[in-house]
Amino acid sequence: MEPAMQRKMLTIVMGLASLLIVHVNGETSLPFDHQKLTSDGHYLDQMQKMQAFKHSLLTRRQLATPPTISSSPAPAPQATNQPPGSRPSVYEVTTYGADPTGKLDSTEALLRAITDAFNGPSEGFLMKGIKNLGGAHINLQGGNYLISKPLRLPAAGAGNLKISGGTLTASDDFPTDGYLIDLSASSSSSSSYNYEYITMKDLMLDCNFRGGGISVINSLRTSIDNCYISHFSTEGILVQNGHETYIRNSFLGQHITAGGDPGERNFSGTAINLMGNDNAVTDVVIFSAAIGVMVSGQANTLSGVHCYNKARGFGGTGIYLKLPSLTQTRIVNCYLDYTGIVAEDPMQLTISSSFFLGDAFILLKSINGLAEGINIVDNMFAGSDTGIEIVQLDQSKGPFKKIDQVVVDRNNVKGMNLKATVARGSVKGNGTSWTVDFSPALLFPNLINHVQYSLSSGGATFPRHALRNVSGNRVVIESDIAVPASVFRHGGAGQRELTLACVFWGLQKSEL
């Protein structure tokens, strides 16, 4: 019989088998469970016979069907082997040949995954010129990957991409000026920013003392979350230009230590370098580096940052504000642990609700002699009773000349010397002159411009009295006759005006 006729006959038989099965299923309206339980087993016998008959027909049909063109084994499930529009949003790096054991170089495999994600389906645009990758996810799958050169996106102009879930380790020949993850553009785009909304999360980066961890160059709305970055020789994280990079819930250290490291005096590098505007560092621990956070951009916020990177006694700095005359930085609820804060020509700077331990202090450094709009309030300082002042001035390059709206007040101190811009004092005596020296308490030297005082005398006469001198932060009150009296004074420094219902206060500002 010809093959065409065989197939036709099989089709007719299959149709009859289907009718028979329908008839068997429809010969009773009893529930299925009840049918199974009939005493004679007639229903079960019929079902088994029909199933065997159908199986034999299917087998004969397969044998009669002409063979199809043979196919090779299916390739690995890489995104590049799938047609556009059906590519997955998750790119698992082991399918590209990356070695999760860290024994083999995985650089090229990881770059292929990044390229596929970059060239994957997009859903319109974010900022003009930045295509939306739709939440593409480069999944490191919990592996440890050895890389010999920086991981970069193939071009600028992309966003809504995440890299997460594994460890990257620099090889012994990794370039010393490179970064493990480098968000710098190898080519230009039509956007004013390189990238937008790139997320790096749940990563451990081991720089192997060769270069840095992450660089974010001229990018917008970048997120670095829950990352552990160690063994950097330059910076753990560099943010340059762009704005709105948020670094949170992360740990950074050149050397892995928990404090008291015997090699602490040799720590180098900078954990976080903010060279852009409008960034935030939140809930971050920096446990070893010469400088914890370097800030040279405007309008940045640091909150919940714990710096014990390198003790002040070894030359370390917790937070360095290197933007003379345009600081605009808020440091709130931070912990400076044996390392302090340096601010060059601070302008619009707030430091509040923070804890300074181990003689850590705040240093205001004169570059062009400017100190304006400073609030250092409501902090705690704890030291070793060695006479360290909580706020200090560095005027080695020239004195502060323009001082306005500076408030240093309401700080509590234990084991250190209090410095403020508001001070109180009193003196008792029998005579015509009363002097109080505010130099130990006031921050700026020879800069009292307002005094409020009261004179209380128990004598029978009513003396006339006046403020006579405020030079050298010393306040002198004189009366026209000698009387036994107490003089109460309140002095302030660095604000334009204060209104206090108290006995004395002095003010320091630019108009001397």
From TrEMBL:
Transmembrane segments: none annotated. Residues 1-26 form the signal peptide. This is POLYGALACTURONASE QRT3. The lineage of its organism: Eukaryota, Viridiplantae, Streptophyta, Embryophyta, Tracheophyta. The keyword Plastid does not apply. The keyword Signal applies. Residues 65-84 have a biased composition (Low complexity). Residues 92-314 form the Rhamnogalacturonase A/B/Epimerase-like pectate lyase domain. It is found in: Secreted, Cell wall. GO terms for molecular function: polygalacturonase activity. Residues 65-99 are annotated as: Disordered. Pfam families: Pect-lyase_RHGA_epim. It comes from the Eukaryota. Keywords: Cell wall, Secreted, Signal. Its main location: secreted. It comes from Salix koriyanagi. InterPro entries: PbH1, Pectin_lyas_fold, Pectin_lyase_fold/virulence, QRT3-like, RHGA/B-epi-like_pectate_lyase.
